[in-house]
Amino acid sequence: MLKIALPNKGRLSEEVRELFNDAGLEVRARGERALTASLGGEFEAIFVRAQDIPEFVADGAAQAGVTGWDLVNEAGRELEPLMDLEFGRCRLVVAARDESGISRVEDVKEGMRVASCFPRLTQAFFQQRGQKVTVVPVSGAAEIAPHLGIADIVVDLTSTGSTLKMNGLKEVATVLESSARLVAYPRNDSEARRALEELTQALGSVLAARGRRYLMANVPKTSLEQVREVLPGLNGPTVVDVMNGGHFVAVHAVVSSRNLYRTVNALKALGGQGILVTRIERLMA
After folding, report:
1. Can you give the residue ranges of the Histidine biosynthesis HisG C-terminal domain (predicted)?
2. Strands in the chain per DSSP E
3. Is pLDDT of 161 > 90?
4. pLDDT value of position 233
């Protein structure tokens, strides 16, 4: 049974568990503090700190793992990226105090001190730009460093920028865009690769279904051309004859939930009846 390293706590852990559950790989643990669990009887989960997952996977202690792309890059270990899980999105940014006079990364002067929980990425970013800075590694709350005189600027994670603004900091440049990723041990054997490919397809089908709905409606045959414009679907709507339907046919399509309100109203305007919308659990193209 392949081992999958998963985050043991925090928002990322909650979203990962939800994704695996939706894919039919229910997390079955003996207790809330259990360090291992069954994933639907198909895989074994091991729960560790998100920042330790790249090391566990790179060393072969787990055949795959889920963690932030920022942590994968900071670890600098050889890993095989399998897929972007599309949640946990954030950015690693350079930020300076509002009154610092630094509005562009070019304004960072030689010898300035940069506080960050990501010293490897920070050093690499400025080295690539030919800027010599002193990196000050911190374990957390990097945004306070400029106010304490520990550093001139920071490199820190942000999703909305609100925490930086609250602490009197402004974004200067983006170092890296991050999200949750499924990564694998680069030297897995063929059997493990096949199992991970199936896992990737299962998780991908859940992600593909999010934000989409399955719509069914009876519409007049004379309106089919207009209906095709309203319901493009994945490959156009599926049209089915309705028994004793007269001049009506049934159309089925996968539609975006974002435009659902307008889509339903457009169908009604074309004479659509019996409109039914349902959620989709998994979608495999």
Report:
1. 209-282
2. 3-7, 27-28, 36-39, 43-48, 64-68, 80-84, 90-97, 113-116, 134-137, 153-158, 169-178, 180-184, 212-220, 238-241, 248-256, 273-279
3. no
4. 64
* pLDDT per residue as tens digits for the range 178-217: 999 999 999 999 999 999 999 999 999 999 999 999 999 9
What is the residue type of 244? Answer: N
DSSP state of 249: E
Whether the predicted pLDDT of 260 surpasses 80: yes
Q: How many residues does the chain have?
A: 285
**Nearest Cα to Cα of residue 144 among 161, 109, 168, 119:** 168
Q: Can you tell me the mean pLDDT for 58-67?
A: 97
In this structure, CATH architecture of domain 212-279: 2-Layer Sandwich (3.30)
What is the CATH T-level fold of the domain 3-88+180-208, as seen in this structure? Answer: D-Maltodextrin-Binding Protein; domain 2 (3.40.190)
